Amino acid sequence: MHLSTTVAFFLAAAAAAIPNPVQCGRDGLLPRRNVNAYLPKRDVSDETLDMCKNAVNCEVHDTPSGKRIRFKRGMEPGSEHYKRAFYHEDGLTKRQANTVNTLVTTGTNSLNYGTTGASGPNGAFNSSLTGACQDSACDTASVNIDTTYVTSLGPSGETLVVHPQGEYDDSNSRDMFIAAMVATASVGEQVKQVSWEIRAPCGPGKSGSMSQATQTSFINISRHVTLSDGVTTAIQGYMLAEVELQPDTSDWCSILTGLGTEISGVISALPPVAEAGAAGAAFFGVISPSCS
């Protein structure tokens, strides 16, 4: 959902604090604000935790940011266990899963993604994940994404800090997961056109407007399958990204809870990423979104 609103940023109460004294930047951009960003402690959804506990190759582990899921060590993509579970004896042909269930968790915290936005090819999720995630796993080092905020004194250069995680089968699976993450980020994203004017002491007479995008700071997608025996369940990939918060809201689930059908729809409608690959509906199967 995209909202178009013009907001005059002359109200000091609506603006984040600017360092004192103000040091004016080049090209009308104010210096970066000294804001302490942080990751709130948040578990993945209860449904995701339960699905992992029931899977033969998945485990729940504690992190400073809350409970997360991952492949059991020695059962991750590329391991002999993984090959036996998901490939035929030739080691090249994938077994056909009986059922596929995908869980999508969005977080209740949201933040301003500035001019960069959360979704789209240049948004924070796609930009961070395409660089961090390789053929079978994501580099968990934080990724810095530049953006611009509108403050009471004018535009301000900012940095979004994204923390990626993920393990999956191959580069095609990676691309499908990234596409699903970006598609999820597009649902419920609120974009406002915000007016600005540079005032003294940075020099009056400059003004304009910029888009400012607000969206959840947390998305986790995990893909679970029933193996060839028709009984045993296993995880076949997951991807997570969380963005450090600055001033934020903590009731974003009120925005996203009613949009679960739309999230399922945009993921199911994803086209194949490879010539012989599966489309979103076939790859992700039954999609169950939740917010926590």
Q: Care to describe what's here?
A:
By secondary structure, this protein is α+β, with helices and mostly antiparallel strands. Helix 3 packs antiparallel against helix 4. The strands form 3 sheets. Strands 6-7-11-10-4-12 form a 6-stranded mixed beta sheet, sandwiched between helices. The protein has 7 helices and 12 strands. The chain starts with 5 loop residues before the first strand and ends with a strand.
Instruction: Spell out the helices and strands N to C.
Output: EHEEHEEHEEHEEEEHHHE
Strand order of the largest sheet: 6-7-11-10-4-12
Unreliable stretches, pLDDT < 50, 5 or more residues?
1-22
Strand portion, in percent? Answer: 25-35%
Q: Measure the end-to-end span.
A: 20 Å
- In this structure, how is the largest beta sheet organized? 6 strands, mixed
Count the DSSP helices.
Answer: 7
Mean pLDDT: 85
What would you report as the Rg, rounded to the nearest angstrom? 21 Å
Name the helicity range: 10-25%
Task: Let me know the number of strands.
Answer: 12
Key features of this structure:
6-stranded mixed sheet; 292 residues; 12 strands; 20% helix; disordered N terminus; 4-stranded mixed sheet; 7 helices; single chain; alpha+beta
Can I get a quick summary?
With about 290 residues, the protein is of the alpha+beta class.
Write the layout of secondary structure elements.
Layout: E1 6-8, H1 46-54, E2 58-63, E3 66-71, H2 80-86, E4 100-106, E5 110-112, H3 124-132, E6 143-151, E7 154-167, H4 171-186, E8 190-198, E9 206-216, E10 218-226, E11 233-243, H5 253-256, H6 260-268, H7 280-284, E12 286-291
Parallel strand pairs: 1-8, 4-12
Antiparallel strand pairs: 2-3, 4-10, 5-9, 6-7, 7-11, 8-9, 10-11
